[in-house]
């Protein structure tokens, strides 16, 4: 087993996730807006993270099995990245507008209860499944060509665990930061602010390619 390759997979998984704000900011924002418990938030991140890495693992394995060229698979990942960015922008904008509408209703009609779990979970899950793990395909192709499928499985496992663990850690850190902000005065706008945060993540991906 190539320890250098496994170490590279771990390092890239951690760095790729920490730099990609779309891996954790949307979860923290939706958790704060919908008042999810910490355990519930971590479960949602875990499920979405699993979908995120498995989609790229499956694509990579299919490419290896079909003998696809690396450039073709990278092109598919690039397309997925474009779709994910636009989906993030659209979801953020729609959720922000809904949040503004909800805030106006609260102002005129008092407290209104809105459980946004399902409305928030599925877009986040779709976003993460669409979103590519760009470095994973080359990492899978190299051991497939040189050392066989056992190394492919090991690289995929290390990268996946490190990616999901980093998502969980970063989300927890951001939630801790949110907890320090006095939310009482802006609670009415929590959904609108969450939508704005998601929208800004999409914009950052489109502008800076993170």
- In percent terms, what proportion of residues is strand? under 5%
* Average pLDDT, all residues: 85
Count of the separate structural domains: 1
The geometry reads as elongated
Describe this structure in words.
This protein has 210 residues and is mainly α. It has one domain (3-107, 126-208). Helix content is 81%, strand content 0%. It is elongated, with a radius of gyration of 19 Å.
Element layout with pairings:
Elements: H1 3-19, H2 25-34, H3 38-66, H4 70-109, H5 117-130, H6 136-146, H7 149-179, H8 190-208
Brief overview, please?
The chain is an all-alpha fold. About 80% of the residues lie in helices and about 0% in strands. The chain has helices at about 5-20, 25-35, 40-65, 70-110, 115-130, 135-145, 150-180, 190-210.
Task: Give a quick set of tags describing it.
single chain; 210 residues; mainly alpha; 8 helices; 81% helix; 0% strand; elongated
